[in-house]
Amino acid sequence: MVGLADDNDHNSGAGVPLLHDDHHIRLSNENDNDDDGNYDADYENDPSDYPDGRNEDYYDEEFGEFEERQPFTSKLEIIGWCIYSWAAEPFIVSVVGTYVPVLLEQIARDNGVKFSDKISPCNGAHNPTIPIPDPPNAPPDEVISSAASSIMSMFAIRDILDPSNTSPPSSQPHEDFDDNICVLPLLGGRIYIDSASYALYTFSISVLVQTIVVISMSGAADRGSHRKQLLIFFGIFGGISTMFYWTVKPDGYYMASILAIFANSAFGGVNVCGNSFLSVLVNNYEKLRSYYLPPNPTNEQVQQKLNLRGEISSRISGLGAALGYISALIVQIGTMLIILHIKNSTNTSGIGGGDPSISPPTTPPPPSPPHPGPQPSYIWPIKLVIGFVGLWWLIFQIPIMILLKSRPSPELKLRHTVGLSFLIL
């Protein structure tokens, strides 16, 4: 339904004719007018007037934004958008929520030393391929981190509050609980952190990096035709970063942390691009685009269209979330079965925990050569399933490439992007 706007719809000073179409106002160009200055209706329907193949911009009075007239959203596009959640959701559930914290803590403990002397390895059998760090030159009070100090205080309070503890608190020497604390030397032994807090520090840094990445690219994701490219880029980058856990060595706690930071930041970028894609799919949904509003709609009519838009958005986003949860459940169960199968087939214990101190006492094995070479790592099943999740994330970028379309929108100038980023910060 297309009709010329009334005189009271025109800007009084500019005299620019406006065209209503489903409550969108088309901004007239100079070419719309013939030699007499009158509106040329044939211009709108002539494809040759648009050499780039796109229609003119429309201004949405409801939502206060420009949008180009594009094809209706297809079912394949909706499926492609849902697959992004199907591909990425297992990462946050299985990798971030389950396996990487266990892996980081175990690697930190395998490479850590006891807090009491900063020399003795935390585990009874030290990996011969990992050198024992030299004792620190500075006094312990100067090199101990705040995290280890907090752990010491926690153990002291626990001993005081323990009902079975009948001796005075002052008679409890620090060495009793110092030996239970495992610290990881960083930066050549200049800093020591509690091995149990290593995963917490890693994910804290990853959230900071993720915030910077999201703020930096949010303008490009919301405006322009870069949504699909950014979505696929971050998906591929996150999948490859997760797969690189296959290469982490027993002493590779630095690499394990860096990969966690990279992958978690990529997941944040994927979510930003996916959410921005949702609004584009909803705005071009056929039922919403076909909903006609008169030139001067009432509040009730506008509210009805807003409600329709919300229903469509909820339906699409709900489908994507449901598929993401199903995918996460499938991958979580599959990875657990893989670990259990490896544990049963190799008849090993402590997968995931890896603390020999909690194992029942056994007869010590016969002495082995001083340096038998690299020992098999009991954390490799965890690395295996983490890499499998990354492979899952990477493979499902293929249907996203095929099904999703790059839908353009008005470009956002650089000064607006920078200003918005600083405003958010």
From TrEMBL:
Bilayer topology reads: Multi-pass membrane protein
Where mainly located? membrane
Q: Name one GO biological process term.
A: amino acid transmembrane export from vacuole
Membrane spanning stretches: 198-218, 230-248, 254-282, 319-342, 378-404
Location of the region described as Disordered in the Swiss-Prot/TrEMBL record: 25-56, 351-373
Name the Pfam families for this protein: ATG22
Query: Where, per UniProt, does this protein localize?
Result: Endomembrane system; Vacuole membrane
InterPro entries with a match to the protein in the record: Atg22-like, ATG22/LtaA_families
Q: Where is the composition biased (Acidic residues)?
A: 31-49
Alphabetically ordered keywords of this record: Amino-acid transport, Autophagy, Membrane, Transmembrane, Transmembrane helix, Transport, Vacuole
Give the record's GO CC terms. Answer: endomembrane system; vacuolar membrane
Q: Composition bias, kind Pro residues: at what positions?
A: 358-373
Q: Does the keyword Transmembrane apply?
A: yes
Purpose: Vacuolar effluxer which mediate the efflux of amino acids resulting from autophagic degradation. The release of autophagic amino acids allows the maintenance of protein synthesis and viability during nitrogen starvation.
Q: What PANTHER family does the database record attribute to this sequence? A: AUTOPHAGY-RELATED PROTEIN 22
To which protein family does this belong? Belongs to the ATG22 family.
The name this protein goes by in its record: Autophagy-related protein
Species assigned in the record? Candida boidinii
Lineage per the UniProt record: Eukaryota, Fungi, Dikarya, Ascomycota, Saccharomycotina
